[in-house]
Amino acid sequence: IADGYFAEENYSSAASYYAEAAKIQPDGISRMADVRDQILALIRSGSLEEARRCVEEDGRGLSDETLQYIEAEFLVEENEKEAALKQMDQLLESGQERDLLLRCCLYGAQYSRETEGYDRELVYLKRAEAYADTLEYHRKIGDLFLDIWQSDNKKERKKEALAGAERCYQKVCRDQNAGYVDRLNLAMILEIKGSYKDALELLEELVQ
Question: What's the CA gap between 88 and 73, in Å, rounded?
């Protein structure tokens, strides 16, 4: 439930459910993951004082990397976005925790989009691909590649972004939980790149 609320950006509700989950989890990795996500949800909901209190009272078992990432999230919420990106880039240079590195890449891509740094956005998204390991993340990154393809005017970047979208949606469609829209998106990508036969075969599978 908490993850669902977080994905929907209903951070206040997510924080409440993560707090409840942390209470019933035995001490260990699972509990600290819930504590971490509770803190992140509090930050994104704007409850910064409560988030800092949670770090002090419940965050003693969090790794140094996690604490560094949390501090970067505080900077984002405080509108210190360039400072947050520098901190996340430091994590990307030396960090080991896959989930945190993925989050850093996605933030880097988002910040680059906001500052019209499309080349840098592509670099972050390619790195994010390497860390993504779920259908949801592959879909999210694929959609971000498609956004670049749709909004950019530079031919080479559009080509690179379309290739990234295809890689991601190929991974999505290999998952048994891939949906109709996922396969339709892949067919569209294949058609755009000129793979008409593959696109038609995929569309024929959809209507059967």
Answer: 9
Which sign does the torsion angle of CA 151, 153, 157, 158 carry?
A: positive
pLDDT in tens, the chain (208 residues): 888 989 888 999 999 999 998 888 777 778 888 999 999 999 999 999 999 999 999 888 899 999 999 999 999 999 999 999 999 999 999 999 999 999 999 999 999 989 888 899 999 999 999 999 999 999 999 999 999 999 888 999 999 999 999 999 999 999 999 999 999 999 999 999 999 999 999 988 888 7
For residue 33, which of 77, 89, 132, 99 has the smallest C-alpha distance? 99
Contact 68, 87 (CB under 8 A): yes
Q: Tell the burial category of 176 from Cβ atoms under 10 Å away from its Cβ (0-12, 13-18, 19+).
A: exposed
Buried/exposed 45-84: b ≥16 CB within 10 Å, e otherwise: bebeeebbebbeebbeebeeebebbbebbbbbbeeebeeb
